[in-house]
Amino acid sequence: MLVPLPVREVMQSPARTIDPDKSVVEAARRLRDEGIGSLVVERDGDCVGIITESDVVAVTAEEGDTRALTVGDVMATALVTIGPDADIEAAVERLRTHGVKKLPVVEDGELVGIVTTTDISRYVPHLAHPKPSREVKPERRRFTRPDTLYENDDWEFESYGTADGIDVGDHVRFSKTLSEVDVERFAEVSGDTNRLHLDDAFAEAGRFGRRIVHGTLVSGIISAALARLPGMTIYLSQELSYRGPVDIGERVTAHCEVVEQLQANRFRLATAVDDADGDCVVEGDAVVISDPIPETG
Questions:
Q1: What residues does the CBS domain cover (predicted)?
Q2: What is the DSSP letter of 193?
Q3: Does the global pTM surpass 0.85?
């Protein structure tokens, strides 16, 4: 499993720059020829602004003839930057707060790179979507399961909805302890015998200093939660980011909430898994089909 990534590991470096006295036409040509979406504007080594494809399109639509305009005439001067050691979720928060899509990365007053929403989405695609709610909505009633083959005393779940089948706002929680036996069985069944999960001495010398649960085993708890939604739920896709490790023997809880109806029987859900302290360790979204439960003799 991964730990939060610093911006320096996902940023583009070096950042492409341009002088504010250069023409807008030259900036447009560079954006096109270099296949990039922005140029950081520097004067005497200082960042003074940024010009993007959107800026060029907007000024062209407004002015028509841009040959007399310089980069300094159209650049955005309210420059929002971030440091290379900030984690990418801090970068996401800054992008959202300021309504921008690109952050120049500055270290000790020097431009060292640029990070964009596209760069970040490769690592944390779920951040574009809502997070599942942890609160029970009072208008929803609790469901019991007529279709799971069996339950276990260690498992706990709550499934809430308004009617048979799935509707936007329905949600489910499922908790279980991920034991030593679970980890050993998962390694055998999946073939993932990475020593990080199975060998104490090996794991102690690694990034986490101890053995941890397989990331895919942790995220599998989401599937268990989805199985307890009203109706018969069938996975179509699952998008995930791993945000932290889970210790062997730790109790985890999956949360899933229906956030969008895509078609008559297809839905998108915000999904997450929390560790025993309530910290999110896996996050993403899923698309599922919800069919009626078949009637059996």
A1: 11-66, 75-133
A2: -
A3: no
